[in-house]
Amino acid sequence: MRRASAFVALLALAWAAWDTGADPARLLRGLPWLLDFVRRMLPPDLRVLPAALAGAVTTVEIALLGTAVAAVLALPLGFLSARNVAAPPIFRVARAALNFFRSVDTLVYALVFVAAVGLGPFPGVLAVIAYTTTSLAKLYSEAIEGIERGPVDAITATGATRAQVLRYGVLPQVLPLFLSYVLYRLETNIRAATVLGFVGAGGIGFYLQTYLRMIDYRAASTVLLVTVVMVVVVDFVSSRLRQRLV
Amino acid sequence: MIEVTGLRVILPPDTRALDGVDLSIRAGEFVVILGSSGAGKTTFLRCLNRLVEPTAGIVRINGRAVTGATPPALRAARREIGMVFQQFNLARRLSVLDNVLTGRLGYAPALASLAGRFPPRDRALARECLGQVGLAHLAERRADTLSGGEQQRVAIARALAQSPAVILADEPTASLDPALTDTIMGTLRRINAERGLTLVVSQHQLATALEYATRIVGFRAGRVVFDGRATDVTPAVVARIYGTMEL
């Protein structure tokens, strides 16, 4: 059985390599062009730094606002899709809805919202909200399903209502996890938001795409550097905050 | 105070956790439930406030029907029944005082309590209950920074904050250092003596049970096999409860 599955897996990988034209030799032949590309990016053109920084600020804003709204919207969804809190019919519907909406990535949502509300950072915010709400709801629900039964029993035994049991028996157990997930999502959303500009949904990606199209690689490299610094800074701050949550 | 008639709990597929228990407990009694693990002690206690749903039988506590009660009536019954657990079951990240305050949830205004606000009267009562278990000085500490014995006393204070008529304690000393057994059991006895509260405590330690109980109820295989005073517990009774002669 194990041998058969290993064989099938190898077969699938080999077919995928053939079908995608994966070829190390071709990569080697392309290497000089890659180096040429890098050479043409240097030195970075710092005249575009103000534009790049403005783009970075917009990207951070998109990620922050989108993640914050999603963190709140995901709360009721998270409880509704937790097996140990919601009634089975509700739980099943909520889980199915989450899995359906979560299978679409932020960038695809951005395309839809750009078509709906026009270009700019706003459709980007909407796209981040759409994806993050469902993905956070899933993480929330798993945290809720992993709680200890004891404190819930203890609060129930005091004569508390269901809402009070959730507030005092469940929430204290899951809140640090929730916050940690939100920060983690913020980190990934910063990355996701950098490419939102490619489809017209605002932020630093717009500048990267514009300069690449204009074949102004030195300007593009400045934008790339700003992107890297932005991501590193947000990751650093966020992971510091997460450590404090334990 | 506590009237139990024909109590049965059948766990699927057909484990008889409780197999027809009749028991009547008067106000102010200190009852210790004895029995080996699996005898039905925990199930019995949890049926008294319906944390476990009985398959059949009637439970009445302090004049209120617990079995068959509607959700609001059940909550009203529960707030008069404090419960202490083997694993303390505190909200670890909340302060000691906030944990004790959860004992007031059944009385507190619903919306304010969800926002974390309790009437000054409840706060004063919570502090008083903490004082009664000797932990007033730890009120502001986070619950999980306390030792096991202290956490269990916080749990007792939480039960006291309910202003209960009855306190149920499910193996309250089983996960503590043996040296702390007397502290916890002593606290429970003091509550029993000073407030006239009815206590139903399960214990697996025979010596402790005999020392503190005014009445011993022995469980075996989901049935009551002994019911009497501690002084009436003879080796033959022990054998009936545990199935061996060990003391």
Low-confidence stretches of chain A: none
Average pLDDT number of chain A: 90
Helix fraction of chain B?
A: 25-40%
The CATH H-level homologous superfamily of chain A? MetI-like
Q: How far apart, in Å, are the first and last alpha carbons of chain B?
A: 32 Å
Q: Note the run of SSEs of chain A as H and E.
A: HHHHHHHHHH
> What is the CATH class of chain A?
Mainly Alpha
| CATH topological fold name of chain A | MetI-like fold
Please provide the count of β strands of chain A. Answer: 0
Helix content of chain A: over 70%
Counted beta strands of chain B = 10
Proportion in β-strands of chain A: under 5%
Q: What is the H-and-E element order of chain B? A: EEEHEEHEHHHHEHEHEEH
- Would you tell me the structural class of the helices and strands of chain B? alpha/beta
Distance between the termini of chain A: 42 Å
**Cα radius of gyration of chain A in angstroms:** 23 Å
- Helical run tally of chain A: 10
What key phrases describe this protein's structure?
heterodimer; A: 246 residues; mainly alpha; MetI-like fold; 10 helices; 81% helix; globular; B: 247 residues; alpha/beta; four-stranded antiparallel beta sheet; 9 helices; 10 strands
Brief overview:
The complex is a heterodimer of chains A (246) and B (247). Chain A has helices spanning 2-19, 24-41, 49-80, 88-102, 106-117, 121-145, 149-157, 162-194, 204-213, 217-244.
Secondary structure elements and pairings:
The complex is a heterodimer of chains A (246) and B (247).
Chain A: H1 2-19, H2 24-41, H3 49-80, H4 88-102, H5 106-117, H6 121-145, H7 149-157, H8 162-194, H9 204-213, H10 217-244
Chain B: E1 2-11, E2 15-25, E3 30-34, H1 41-48, E4 56-61, E5 64-65, H2 71-78, E6 81-84, H3 96-101, H4 110-114, H5 120-132, H6 148-161, E7 166-170, H7 181-195, E8 198-203, H8 206-212, E9 215-220, E10 223-228, H9 235-242
Helix pairs in contact in B: 5-6, 6-7
What do you see in this structure?
- The complex is a heterodimer of chains A (246) and B (247).
- In chain A, 81% of the residues lie in helices and 0% in strands.
- Chain A has 246 residues and is mostly helical.
- Chain A has one domain: MetI-like fold, CATH 1.10.3720.10.
- The longest helix of chain A is centred in the C-terminal third of the chain and has 33 residues, at 162-194.
- The two termini of chain A are 42 Å apart.
- Chain B is globular, with a radius of gyration of 18 Å.
- In chain B, α5 (120-132) packs across α6 (148-161) and α6 runs parallel beside α7 (181-195).
- In chain B, a hairpin with a 2-residue loop joins β4 and β5 (64-65).
- In chain B, strands 6-7-8-3-9-10 form a six-stranded mixed beta sheet, sandwiched between helices. A four-stranded antiparallel beta sheet of chain B has the order 2-1-4-5, covered by helices on one side.
- Chain A binds chain B through residues 148, 150-151, 153-161, 163-164, 167-169, 172-173, 175-176, and chain B through 49, 51, 75-83, 85, 87-94, 102-106, 110, 113-114, 155, 158, 162.
